[in-house]
Amino acid sequence: MDLLAPISRNLIAPLWAKWEKSPYLSHYKRFLKTQYAPLETIRESQTAKMREIVTHAYRTCPFWRERFDSCSIKPSDIHQLEDLRQLPLLTKTDLRTRLDDMISTDYSDRSRLTRHETSGSTGVSVEVFSDEESDQFKRGAVLRSDEWTGWKLGERRALIWGNPQIRTNWKGKIRRFLLDRDYVYLDTLKMDEAAMSQFADALVAAPPSMLFGHAHSLYLFAGYIQAKRPNVKIRPHGILSTCMVLHDYERNLLEEVFQCRVVNRYGCEEVSLIACDCEKQEGLHVNTDALFVELMDFQGNPCPPEQPGRILVTDLCNRAMPMIRYEVGDTAVWAGKPCSCGRTLPLFSQIEGRVADYVMTNKGEYISGISLTENFACMVDGIAQLQIVQEEIDRFTFNIVKAPDFGESTLTRLTELVRKRFGNAAVYQCVFMDKIPQEKNGKYRFCISKVKKEFQ
Ligand SMILES: [Zn+2]
Q1: What's the whole-number average pLDDT of the chain?
Q2: Do 238 and 263 touch, CB atoms closer than 8 A?
Q3: If 41 and its partner were Cys, which of 37, 138, 206, 406 is the partner (CB 3.0–4.6 Å)?
Q4: Is the confidence at residue 271, as pLDDT, over 80?
Q5: Least confident of 142-156, 157-171, 193-207, 393-407
Q6: How far is the CA of 33 from the centre of ligand 1 (A)?
Q7: In the predicted model, what is the mean pLDDT of residues 266-278?
Q8: Average pLDDT over residues 90-112
Q9: Half-sphere exposure of 137 (CA within 13 A, CB side)
Q10: Separation of 212 CA from ligand 1 center, angstroms?
Q11: What's the 223 CA to ligand 1 centre distance in angstroms?
C-alpha cells in the first residue's frame, strides 16, 4: 500500500508547485479539458500561438529574419497554419551551425534557459535551449499523457533509463522521494544480470504504479524476468515506453510479463513530447497544445491519412529558441479517424522512428544502443553523425561524419570513452564517411550489434 501517494498528489505536488512558482498543474488541469475540445477550437488556438511565435522569431532572431527575408516573406504573410509551407524546413545542420543566431535576443542570458542536448534519431548531436515558461507548459502536457498509463501523479514510478539526471543533492533527494516518486532506476548503460536482479527485488519490495523506459530496455528486462525470475510478480498499473520504436513483439512480451497496458510515447529532446498512446492504444495523440505537427512526403506535399511522411514540428511555446518546421528525422502516418476514447487530439496510427540494437560487453553487461550513441555523440566534440557497430564482443567500428570542429582531441576523447565503456580489451576502427547509410527500408540504425545475446 502506497500511503504517500494521495498525500504527494493532493498536498505535496500543489505546495511544491507554489514554492517553485510553477504553473504546470494549472496547465495540466486545462489540458484535461482541451483534449476533448472541438477540432476547430484546437486549430484556432494553434493558429494564434503560431502567429505570435513567428512574429517573435522574426523580431528577435537573426536566423529567422534572414530566412524570412531570403524567401521574401514577412510574418504578416502567414495567416493560417498552412502558410508555414512557404518556409523551408529547419534541419539539424541549421541547429548545429546557426545556434547563436537562433536564440532570441529577448533571452540572451543563457544561464536562465534550459539546455537540451541530444544525438537525435540519426546520431547527430544537436543543442537546443528553452525558456522556463515553455518548460512548465510542456510539463503539464507530459503529466496529462503520463496518466494515460493508469498511473496518477504522486504514485511511485520505476525508471529504466540511460544517462539519468539523478538528483543527488539533499533537495533533489527529497524531491525524488516526495514528488517525482521515481525511487528506483536501472541504468541502461549497465544492465547486467546482477543489476536487473537488484532492480526486480526493489520493485517487489515497493511496487511501482508505473514502469518507464526505453522500449528495448523494458523488453530486455521483461525477457530477463521471464527467463530467470519467472516467479517474481511485478504488476504496475501501466508501462510507459519511450525514446524509440516499440515493436509489437516487445509490447506483447511486456504485457504478458507485467500484465498491464503499455503506452507508447514519441518525443525528442528538442521539442519534448510529440505524441502518445492513450488507454485505448489505437494510435498516438499529438500534443497539439504545445506543437503544430505536419507530415510531409518527399516531394514536399502534405500527407493524406495512411501515407507515411516526414515529421515536421513547429514549437508553439518555446520563445527562447523558436523552432519552426523542424525536421525531427522520423516518419509517421496520420490515422485518418478519431480515437474511440473521445479525445479530439489528432492521431498518428504509426511511427517509424529510431532503431538501435543492444550492445553486450565481455562482462555480460547490456548497454542500450540509444544511450550509448547519445553518450558518445554528446561527449565527443567534432562528430556530426555517429553510428556504432559491434562486430564482435570486443571489436567495434565507429562510422563517423566529421563536424567542422573535428580534430586530434576528438580521437583522444573517443579512445577514453571506449576504454571507459568497454574496457582495455576493446579494439576499434573509425571509418569516416559523408553520411551514415540508411537501411533498405529507409530507417537509420545508429547502433548495430552483430553479437548473439541471451536476451534480445
Ligand atoms: Zn485515444
Answers
A1: 89
A2: yes
A3: 37
A4: yes
A5: 157-171
A6: 14
A7: 94
A8: 94
A9: 16
A10: 20
A11: 29
The predicted structure's pLDDT at residue 258: 97
CA of 235 to the centre of ligand 1 (A): 23
For 17, other C-beta atoms within 10 Å of its C-beta total: 18
pLDDT of amino acid 244:
72
What's the 131 CA to ligand 1 centre distance in angstroms? Answer: 30
Q: What is the pLDDT of residue 385?
A: 79
Whole-number Å distance, alpha carbon 276 to ligand 1 midpoint, is 9
Residue ranges, comma separated, of all CATH 3.30.300.30 domains in the chain are: 358-449
288 Cα to the center of ligand 1, angstroms? 14
Specify the pLDDT at position 305. 94
With cut-offs at 50, 70 and 90, classify the pLDDT of residue 45. Answer: very high
For residue 258, the CA-to-ligand 1 centroid distance in Å is 22
d(CA 76, ligand 1 centre) in Å: 36
Ligand 1 centroid–CA 53 distance in Å is 29
Return the residue matching grid coordinates 520504436: 245
Question: Distance, CA 99 to ligand 1 centroid (Å)?
Answer: 37
Model's pTM, two decimal places? 0.83
Rounded to the nearest angstrom, the distance between the alpha carbon of 181 and the centre of ligand 1 is 26
Tell me the CATH number of domain 358-449, given options 3.30.1490.270, 3.30.70.20, 3.40.50.300, 3.30.300.30.
3.30.300.30
Question: Could you tell me how many residues make up the chain?
Answer: 456
Q: What is the pLDDT of residues 397-423, one digit of tens each?
A: 999 988 888 999 999 999 999 998 888
Please give the CATH number for the structural domain made up of 4-37+133-352. 3.40.50.12780
Phi/psi of residue 110, each to 5°? -70, -20
Residue the block writes with cell 522520423: 330
What is the number of other CB atoms lying within 10 angstroms of the CB of residue 358? 25
- What is the whole-number distance in angstroms between the Cα of residue 30 and the centre of ligand 1? 18
Beta strands 210-214 and 157-161, pairing class: parallel
Torsion of CA 193, 196, 201, 205, to 10 degrees: 170
Cell of 140: 503539464
Report the 10 Å Cβ neighbour count for 306: 12
CA 182-376-98 angle, to 5 degrees, is: 100
From the CA of 133, how far away is ligand 1's center (Å)?
27
**How many angstroms separate the CA atoms of 339 and 337, rounded?**
7
Using an 8 Å Cβ cutoff, are 279 and 150 in contact? Answer: yes
Q: How far is the CA of 120 from the centre of ligand 1 (A)?
A: 27
Ligand 1 centroid distance, CA of 141 (Å):
15
